[in-house]
Amino acid sequence: MFHKNQKSVKKKIAQAPSLSSFSSLASPLTKFRLKIIFRCGSSGMKKKQCLWLLPFQKKAELVVSFCPWLQGPIAVVFCDEKKIKSLNLQFRGKNLATDVLTFPAKFSSPEPSQPSEIYLCLEKIQAQAKNYELSLEIESIRLFVHSLAHLKGWDHENNPDEEKLMLNFEKQLLAKLGIFAIYD
Hints:
This protein is α/β, with parallel strands linked by helices. The protein has a single domain, classed as Collagenase (Catalytic Domain), CATH 3.40.390.30. The chain has a 4-stranded mixed beta sheet. The longest helix has 17 residues. It is globular. The N terminus is likely disordered.
């Protein structure tokens, strides 16, 4: 697992919320089908304080290129605790903020370009990065890679075998980025 005091990330969601209420960071869908969306909300972070988002996006695009099994585009939404708590309550029945939520694309949707959606909580990223002595960029990419394991269909909460698969998958992808030894 991650550092000793990390709580289990909880997410198993059947349907995705709409992205229509979010403003987009000037980041069009790239050749790797990735879109970054930044929603400041009450996090206190301004776009200019998020210079780590560009290196994050480059690493995320590279990670996506290592995952040929991914179908369709991926939207990565950086949001505040209020938004992620609301989503967690709405889709999982849990009235608490979490660091990341993953919503697979709606394959039954008549719109084939419906993206898979990954919501990353800025306040949680900041707190965890400080606690684990990581940069915001590295903590964000760690959570992004964790979400990709969920898009693969794995569930660490209800299946110990899949938890091991997820951890191995995450370590391998992070190693391809030159990120080692953050899982102790």
